[in-house]
Amino acid sequence: MEEWIKIIGMGRHGSRHLSYEEAVQAAHVMARGEATDAQTAAFLIAMRMKGESPEEIKGFTDIFRRYSLRYKRFPHSLNCAGPYDGRLYFPVTLPVSLLLASAGFSQVLHGSESLPPKLGVSLKELLEGLGVQVELQAKEWEDLFRRIGIGFIWTELICPPFGRMRPVRKQLALRTFLNTVEKILNPVQSQYMIIGVRHETAMDHLIRLLPPLGIETAYAVQGIEGSEDLPTYKPTLVRRVTAWGDTTCTVDPALFGFSGKPLEACSKAEQLELVTRILQGENAPELRNERDHVLFNAGLRLYWFDKVASYEEGFELARELLGRGEPYKLLAKWRELSLQSSLFKLEANAVW
């Protein structure tokens, strides 16, 4: 490991990017647990100070995929890649994903326990708070996904190297390039992705990374808290990436009749309450801002990924499904079936 640390940690004038082959070798050492905690921390900090290259990220992504559980391919699904340090505000993508899945568009969520520096509320925590069992093996997950068209992948369960490195990443209390690797791991090989980024440099990396990973169409969104969620109160920079190139645009919610206000920070309990009430179809005045964020983002995604013929049709379909409580019915089914899978596993282990 010392060799790679020296290459990337020699300072502004002495360091250089690792080649793809060098990154692959370094990733193997870290994935096998052969690097000490001190070496792992030094490598991550040096990479952060130098700035990672697309070749380095791809090398680590390719190798960490090899050390992950094997899932069957679900190419016609949408992979939703949000912030791994959690959310301090209403988690728009969670009800949006349930809404899209209730419309027949399969959704893949993923994450782990929240990490620094933000230490917000993770999607894993929220789903567990809603009663969904997320600790499922690959076969159980696949069976459930086929039945309901939505699933959550616990990254540290399916990719052990992330679990081993979690203590180091937590103590560093900084975002590192591994956050990007987690986002684009894509274990079920979805052809569609929507990914949250914090700055345009990350978008530039994704142009080169996503097509070779099998992503047919991806949207990189500089959204709320670095998430894939677009606000209704200001324009958002969005980049569409395909195998044939990329385009950049600014999405102005006012052009679609949305004029909300910034979301307010809220606790885990408050996030769970807001999500539940909105999914159940409530349309109370105090829910309007969060509900409009759900409708806006759901309509955009329905159109972006060719599930409707126009933005207006997407917003109308989202409004209709939400009004009927269809996403909440799907959540109830997800909760029931995931618990059944978990109980079946416990019974089988007891018999064994």
TrEMBL record:
<dbReference type="InterPro" id="IPR036320">
    <property type="entry name" value="Glycosyl_Trfase_fam3_N_dom_sf"/>
</dbReference>
<keyword id="KW-0057">Aromatic amino acid biosynthesis</keyword>
<keyword id="KW-0328">Glycosyltransferase</keyword>
<keyword id="KW-0822">Tryptophan biosynthesis</keyword>
<dbReference type="Pfam" id="PF02885">
    <property type="entry name" value="Glycos_trans_3N"/>
</dbReference>
<dbReference type="GO" id="GO:0000162">
    <property type="term" value="P:L-tryptophan biosynthetic process"/>
</dbReference>
<keyword id="KW-0028">Amino-acid biosynthesis</keyword>
<feature type="domain" description="Glycosyl transferase family 3 N-terminal">
    <location>
        <begin position="13"/>
        <end position="66"/>
    </location>
</feature>
<keyword id="KW-0808">Transferase</keyword>
<feature type="domain" description="Glycosyl transferase family 3">
    <location>
        <begin position="85"/>
        <end position="326"/>
    </location>
</feature>
<dbReference type="GO" id="GO:0004048">
    <property type="term" value="F:anthranilate phosphoribosyltransferase activity"/>
</dbReference>
<dbReference type="Pfam" id="PF00591">
    <property type="entry name" value="Glycos_transf_3"/>
</dbReference>
<dbReference type="InterPro" id="IPR017459">
    <property type="entry name" value="Glycosyl_Trfase_fam3_N_dom"/>
</dbReference>
<dbReference type="InterPro" id="IPR035902">
    <property type="entry name" value="Nuc_phospho_transferase"/>
</dbReference>
<protein>
    <submittedName>
        <fullName>Anthranilate phosphoribosyltransferase</fullName>
    </submittedName>
</protein>
<dbReference type="InterPro" id="IPR005940">
    <property type="entry name" value="Anthranilate_Pribosyl_Tfrase"/>
</dbReference>
<dbReference type="GO" id="GO:0005829">
    <property type="term" value="C:cytosol"/>
</dbReference>
<dbReference type="InterPro" id="IPR000312">
    <property type="entry name" value="Glycosyl_Trfase_fam3"/>
</dbReference>
